[in-house]
């Protein structure tokens, strides 16, 4: 009888332990929330402030990101006071195109990305810092602000060769024709950001950046768009979406998003969300929305 009582007590203990720990273990594991810092404050685009708020909303609606916005001093003001603590974040999203930062801030930013911090570069952010070597390596290619053949080669998809080429031809860095709708063509369907997206999709009215140039190192071109001569374009298949590596840090570079109506495109929103997740984690778990644009029909939020 004594043995039976002992076995009975052991059974009760095991059952209680199962209830306590087993059921707890069945609770869903909460998603990792990545911290993102959007930088703005200077930009030659009038929608800068609204654009930052819009992108913050796009990221936070995924429930994957907690987003802060930091604003630099105004153009011409002392930049020494701009010293964000990058190490408090997983990702920095640049919506900035303006005066150089201080050397202290530059060094801190370089260290952040080199040590594994993520970077997202949106549209005119690739106009910034033409003389900052590390930044230009991070973005791969950029435009304007005196960029030319000394900045590095052009980068585009050559149909005749069936591949991305680097072109060292003498010329300006950065231009665009008339704003218009255009087809974005996937070039790397296997990349996590692009997986499941259509081979081609119609983007909303936007500036189509062309003739960008720079170091063009460690660049993977995810998607291109043809810049038509009749729209004052280059007549080439220009990079629209890119990824890069700088040290341990991952970078997602989108040239899309000039105006508010451009940023309402479901294609812009989806690739921004997926690109930010990828630089933060190296993976993309977000599903492609059912209303993603096709080659025949665009799709945008109201």
UniProtKB/TrEMBL annotation:
Classification via SUPFAM superfamilies: Class I glutamine amidotransferase-like
Organism: Dyadobacter pollutisoli
Residues covered by the ThuA-like domain: 35-279
Protein name: ThuA domain-containing protein
Family annotation (InterPro entries): Class_I_gatase-like (IPR029062), ThuA-like (IPR029010)
